[in-house]
User: Which sequence fits this backbone?
């Protein structure tokens, strides 16, 4: 099993935006040195202010920020977790993704999703009710652009009559695409159109009970992984397919008990079909973050990589 490290804006900026680039360089370099397989950034270009006050989070532009990370790293994968495809013209997204893939020498993992914040859709001038159709359309359009051939594509909000994009991504036929979401539609999209699936755990109890597609246990996840397999088989697809949830085990301290709990849960997830696990680590000061990253690299990652 491989691990992708979540780099959050709150940890990288706090109240000093002028130090963000230095902090990101330090943290991403530490993650690479510790043996993390990927680092990831999420996507909220213009979030709702009330949502932010109620526990939401800001974000860098993931493709732009990961291009920065590509410049001072050599082998850690660069993972968008996730980028909301309907917010953007798909040909611009394809160009940005290609730029990152080429400049990083083929290290991009393109995590995608439909998003959920209707006010952000409104602010960006995109119809929230069409988000599913726009996502499927974007996947088709980007793959056409990445082919290196002349594209003819009639989209909902655009049309390509005789256009071509250069260069093509280094990864062929394109960077791996992982689709986020727990519901049947998202799972079908992942199985039929993508190369991986990024589900997420919700805590058991009132929070999980409010969501019909909630995953609260590894047993829940295993059922859905099996469903993904059925959908892929029905679509005539075979070959490698990644499953990459964020770990439900919070790494809150550098102790043997925490490490053992994380490893035990990861072993259960690997048995259920998980191939990657995502996580964040606590820390506000850069020194605390790098100490936690180094500890995780020494105490957990070697055992995790053995699964």
Assistant:
């Amino acid at each position: 099993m491989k691990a992708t490290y979540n780099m959050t804006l709150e940890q990288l900026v706090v109240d000093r935006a002028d130090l963000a680039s230095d902090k990101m360089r330090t943290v991403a370099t530490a993650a690479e040195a510790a043996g993390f397989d990927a680092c990831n950034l999420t996507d909220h270009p213009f979030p709702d202010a009330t949502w932010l006050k109620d526990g939401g989070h800001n974000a860098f532009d993931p493709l732009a920020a990961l291009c920065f990370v590509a410049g001072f790293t050599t082998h850690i994968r660069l993972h968008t977790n996730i980028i909301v495809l309907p917010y953007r013209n798909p040909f611009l997204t394809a160009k940005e993704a290609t730029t990152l893939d080429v400049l990083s020498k083929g290290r991009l993992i393109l995590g995608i999703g439909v998003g959920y914040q209707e006010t952000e859709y409104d602010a960006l001038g995109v119809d929230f009710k069409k988000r599913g159709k726009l996502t499927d359309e974007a996947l088709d359009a980007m793959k056409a652009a990445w082919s290196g051939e002349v594209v003819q594509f009639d989209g909902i909000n655009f049309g390509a009559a005789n256009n071509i994009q250069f260069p093509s991504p280094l990864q062929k036929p394109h960077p791996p695409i992982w689709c986020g979401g727990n519901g049947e539609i998202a799972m079908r999209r992942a199985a039929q159109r993508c190369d991986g699936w990024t589900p997420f755990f919700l805590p058991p109890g009132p929070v999980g009970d409010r969501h019909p597609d909630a995953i609260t246990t590894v047993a829940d996840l295993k059922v859905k992984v099996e469903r993904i397999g059925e959908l892929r088989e029905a679509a005539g697809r075979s070959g490698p397919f990644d499953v990459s949830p964020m770990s439900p085990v919070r790494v809150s301290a550098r102790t043997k008990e925490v490490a053992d709990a994380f490893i035990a849960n990861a072993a259960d997830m690997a048995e259920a079909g998980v191939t990657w696990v995502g996580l964040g680590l606590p820390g506000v000061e850069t020194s605390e973050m790098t100490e936690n990253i180094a500890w995780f690299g020494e105490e957990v990652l070697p055992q995790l990589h053995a699964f």
About this structure: The mean pLDDT is 94. Residues 218-234 form the longest helix (17 residues).
